[in-house]
Design brief:
The complex is a heterotrimer of chains A (383), B (290) and C (311). Chain B is mainly α and 290 residues long. Chain B is 72% helix and 2% strand. With 311 residues, chain C is mainly alpha-helical. Chain C is 72% helix and 3% strand. The chains are: A alpha/beta (383), B mainly alpha (290), C mainly alpha (311). Chains B and C meet through helix 4, helix 9 and helix 11 of B and helix 6, helix 12 and helix 14 of C.
């Protein structure tokens, strides 16, 4: 009887000690992304993430274990998002979560993740409220909206002689996560927008907005617009003679915007916050583009594709440091030891601590200088 | 000049809405089905053009014609293969069927292009015409020209030719038309084809103006509804007028009231029309047979 | 009494479910209520009204706002959510009364729903805008709603009560009148039955039921955002009723369960969900347009529902 109880206790202890999602040969990471639906182009971030983990596996994995990614689609819908995260946590029993592009859904699943205590590295969603105030198990692996908004605002304010600013943006939370902080920063410098125009996703003409902005005669326009709408607005701006600099968001990148509008004159005045260490087709990012191409040959590289690779690198480093017996608590401790980590892909270095989970605080701005995308420190000052 | 420029853009947009509304109306008149998947047919037209121009390397005009022809075929196939088959079921089933194939089309586009947002290479590289303060782009001119010609052709066909008389006969009374020997089933197929083809033209015209993505069609569906409602459900001319007016309304509301309202102008129009003049501008009050 | 077999059997579910599967069951319960409510108007009354997401959304937002801003506990917000839905349903019925033709009603109610959604987006502090409103943890007469299991029992109770009420209604004089109006409004009117009143009643009751479903949804997801109540959601509701069987109570249940479970199977193939969903709808309409309930009735005669749409 005692022997039997002893065996039972042992079995119990062993099963209790083995962490969810870790087996002898693999570590399961849950990757949530909007692979279908209106926001499906955001999921390029998760694709890049997956490609990187596959590459790590081909390099030998982490301490002898392969990373097994479990991809879940939630189409930016809150019900699907809750279902996906519960499945990952309770059914697939993953070790950690790494993903998410849609901020609203991320906020919806946050209480579930907090309660489950599972480590969650936010790979793309920009809402700073997800990771602050800091909770035990949530890490932000990309610059948050506030960081980017401030970078945008700082650049705009650095233009000499700037007095009037106009804003054109979508009214969804994605756009607000950029334009909100940008406006706040400018307000702190006593610059308030002279007009704020709404240009919704799916619309194909911005005549009304462009004309109203032109009438207001601003020195700079801040455009919190998605890819298609940015192209439409820039084309309309050129068409109606609105020749002022335009500050975009990290939802677009210079190379692809040029491709979309088709000619340099239309984008010559376009600037974007730049999260990467180089231009998308620059030498320092080539390695990452190649990794993407290797595992997803049909995937084109846009502003979203490489963004999650930075946090993936930090995760892999932290996992390596946890040694042969990774546990969630050990991972959290190691993630918090990430300091000034240069990922090679992000412009900013990643630093996490228990009191500050906003991992990436540096964002530059890029614009066309002499026809080539160039990273800038401030107006007219290339890096 | 502000009002005029807005009007110009509004009419250019409205021309596309008119086309979409007309194509939906054609389908409705012929088979009493409102095609809830019509937006996705428009999207399909745009995507087929993209494939032909970018991947097959054909010149734009040839691609456009080919795309329209292919969509015509698709329309016919949908009608014969899907719509006819469920004629015996509840009328509401048609709506779901249309939604269903709309989803399939969207799914195919997403399956092939996944997460991409695709640019159409610039087709017409002419500089805009500037008349005083007014700017008219080549795109707008082409839209006006194409839609104008198409509408003219359509109405001439419908009201003047013998084929048109056949159409009118079937629209007025299917049984009567069948009695005089008109192949009503073939007619249904052809009309769906025509509707799909017209929708495809809309897609072809909108493709150079915007980026292509699988969800492109959604907004056109609603605008089509609003235009049909405004013009009077079932009235072909009304659909066109409704489309143009809707385009104008959107720009003027955006220009003079608030750009936040542009997105819901279509819905406001629908509700206003219902409240004030339920039969729309050109619809006739239909007496219901008891 | 036969009615209670299913709910009683369902009591055993928490014994075998993990939080994920329990969540899915809870979601199914919410959608059963949604489908039952929608079917009242779509199937029993026979009106193609696309107001369901408006009713669902207004119920969800009312519940969320009362809980988040006024601090009301869940049990207190259920009825107000239902009343909000009922009010919206009432408005929609006014449209129907004007004798608007089939598709017109669909489009107007659709427009109504989208306008409501626009107001949620631009409602700023009241509705949380595009970020939505977080629904605080609450309780149901002392039972804390912080676990899927607790929510299950509470939802099961509410859904069973409401569905039974609808079932009783359908078997009553009112239900028969509603179905009669569907089959031939003029003939019904000629029998001195006040058709207008019954149309309004059907819409309002539908709104009440779906509004309460909205409050359940708000608690289940924990957050209400405008995106959840758009056209994609409407299509889901529509599909549930049609796939289940127009006018059939059992059909609403079957359709809700089937179409909630379905997307979960498509997780294997991220990116192909839309194609599968569309394909499924098409296949279903071609093969079994009368719905799952017709299929069920074919196997077991007692399941046959008198208020089907017979075509």
């Amino acid at each position: 009887m005692n022997y039997f109880l002893g065996m039972l206790a042992c079995a119990f202890a062993v099963s209790a000690a083995a962490e969810d999602g870790v087996t002898a040969g693999s570590i399961k990471i849950g990757v949530m992304g909007p692979f279908t639906g209106n926001a499906s182009s955001y999921s390029k971030a998760q694709i890049g993430l997956d490609a990187y983990y596959k590459w790590v596996n081909d390099q030998g994995g982490v301490n002898g274990r392969k990373i097994e990614t479990v991809l879940e689609d939630y189409a930016c819908d809150s019900a699907k998002g809750v279902a996906a995260v519960k499945k990952l946590i309770h059914q697939d029993k993953v070790f950690m979560l790494h993903g998410n592009s849609c901020s609203a859904v991320a906020m919806a699943i946050k209480p579930i993740v907090v309660e489950a205590g599972i480590p969650w590295v936010v790979a793309h969603a920009a809402n700073g409220n997800i990771s602050s105030p800091p909770v035990k198990n949530i890490f932000h692996g990309v610059p948050v909206g506030k960081t980017m908004g401030i970078a945008m605002g700082q650049f705009v304010a650095s233009k000499p002689g700037l007095t009037k600013v106009a804003v054109i943006s979508h009214t969804d939370d994605w756009a607000k996560s950029y334009c909100g902080p940008a406006n706040e920063y400018l307000a702190s410098k006593n610059i308030k927008p002279v007009v704020q125009e709404a240009f919704e996703r799916g619309q194909t003409d911005s005549t009304a907005q462009t004309l109203k902005i032109k009438q207001a005669n601003p020195d700079f326009v801040i455009a919190c617009l998605y890819e298609a709408e940015t192209a439409i607005f820039l084309k309309d701006a050129k068409k109606y003679g609105l020749n002022v600099p335009v500050m975009g968001t990290a939802g677009t990148d210079l190379e692809n915007t040029l491709k979309r509008v088709g000619d340099l004159n239309t984008v010559a005045n376009y600037y974007v916050p730049h999260m990467y260490a180089d231009n998308l087709d620059g030498p320092r990012l080539k390695k990452f583009g190649d990794i993407l191409k290797k595992y997803y040959p049909n995937e084109s590289v846009t502003a979203f594709s490489l963004i999650a690779m930075g946090s993936a690198m930090a995760v892999v480093e932290a996992l390596k440091r946890t040694g042969r017996e990774p546990t969630r608590d050990k991972l959290i401790t190691e993630l918090d030891r990430t300091k000034d980590f240069d990922t090679g892909v992000l412009a900013g270095h990643i630093s996490w601590s228990p009191s500050d989970r906003d991992g990436v605080k540096d964002v530059a701005v890029a614009g066309f200088v002499k026809g080539k995308p160039t990273v800038l420190k401030a107006w007219g000052k290339p890096l | 000049m502000f009002a005029l420029q807005l009007a110009l853009s509004g009419l250019a947009q409205g021309a596309i809405y008119a086309l979409v509304a007309l194509s939906m109306c054609v389908v409705y008149r012929a088979t009493t089905v409102v095609n809830f998947g019509h937006g996705d047919l428009v999207m399909a037209g745009a995507f087929v053009v993209y494939v032909l121009v970018v991947l097959a390397g054909l010149p734009f005009l040839a691609s456009a014609v080919l795309a329209v022809a292919l969509l015509f075929l698709l329309g016919v196939l949908i009608e014969i293969g899907l719509i006819e088959r469920i004629k015996a079921g509840p009328h509401i089933g048609f709506a779901l069927m249309c939604i269903g194939f709309g989803y399939v089309l969207r799914g195919i586009a997403r399956g092939v292009w996944g997460r991409e947002v695709l640019p159409m290479p610039t087709v017409f590289d002419f500089p805009p015409v500037i008349a005083g303060d007014l700017v008219v782009t080549a795109d707008a001119l082409i839209i006006f020209a194409a839609v104008g010609v198409l509408l003219a052709l359509f109405f001439v066909l419908f009201y003047r030719s013998s084929a048109g008389r056949v159409m009118q006969a079937v629209c007025q009374s299917e049984r009567g038309a069948a009695l005089v020997g008109i192949n009503v089933r073939a007619f249904h197929g052809v009309m769906w084809g025509a509707g799909a083809a017209l929708g495809a033209v809309g897609g072809v015209l909108i493709a150079p103006l915007t980026l292509l993505h699988p969800g492109l069609g959604a907004s056109f569906l609603i605008k089509g509804f609003a235009a049909m409602t405004l013009g009077g459900f079932g009235s072909l001319g009304g659909a066109v007028a409704g489309g143009l007016l809707l385009g104008l309304a959107e720009q003027w509301v955006g220009g003079y009231v608030s750009t936040k309202l542009i997105d819901v102008t279509a819905y406001l129009v629908i509700i206003l029309v219902l409240a004030l003049r339920p039969n729309g501008l050109f619809g006739r009050a239909v007496a219901e047979r008891v | 009494m036969r009615f209670y077999i299913l709910p009683l059997a369902a009591l055993a579910i928490p014994l075998v479910a993990n939080p994920y599967t329990q969540f899915m069951v809870n979601l199914m319960l919410v959608y059963v209520l949604v489908a039952v409510g929608f079917n009242l108007v779509l199937g029993n009354l026979g009106q193609l009204a696309f107001a369901n997401t408006a009713l669902f959304g207004i119920g969800a937002y009312s519940a969320a706002m009362l809980m988040a801003h006024a601090g009301w506990p869940f049990w207190l917000v259920i009825v107000p959510a239902g009343l909000a839905g009922a009010a919206a349903g009432f408005l929609a019925s006014v449209t129907a009364l004007r004798g608007i033709r089939v598709y017109y009603l669909a489009i107007v109610t659709l427009a109504f729903g989208e306008l409501l959604r626009w107001s949620y987006i631009h409602g700023e502090r009241a509705t949380g805008g595009t970020d939505g409103l977080a629904v605080p943890n609450s309780h149901f007469f002392g039972i804390a709603l912080d676990s899927e299991t607790a929510r299950f029992y509470v939802f099961l109770l509410i859904v069973t009560v409401l569905v039974k009420a609808v079932s009783n209604l359908l078997q009553s004089k009112i239900g028969r009148a509603i179905v009669a109006i569907r089959d031939n409004e003029l003939a019904t009117a000629s029998l001195a039955i006040p058709t207008g009143r019954y149309i309004v009643l059907a819409f309002t009751l539908s709104g009440f039921v779906v509004g309460i479903a909205g409050s359940l949804f708000a608690v289940l997801i924990g957050r209400v955002i405008p995106e959840s109540f758009g056209l994609i959601e409407l299509i889901l509701h529509f599909a549930m009723v049609l796939v289940g069987g127009l006018g059939s109570l059992l059909g609403s249940v079957l359709g809700a369960v089937a179409l909630t479970a379905l997307p979960e199977f498509f997780r294997r193939f991220p990116g192909l969900y839309e194609m599968f969903f569309g394909g499924l709808l098409i296949v279903f309409l071609l093969v079994q347009p009368r719905g799952l309930s017709a299929l069920a009735a074919r196997w077991w005669q007692p399941l046959r529902d008198r208020y089907y749409r017979e075509h």
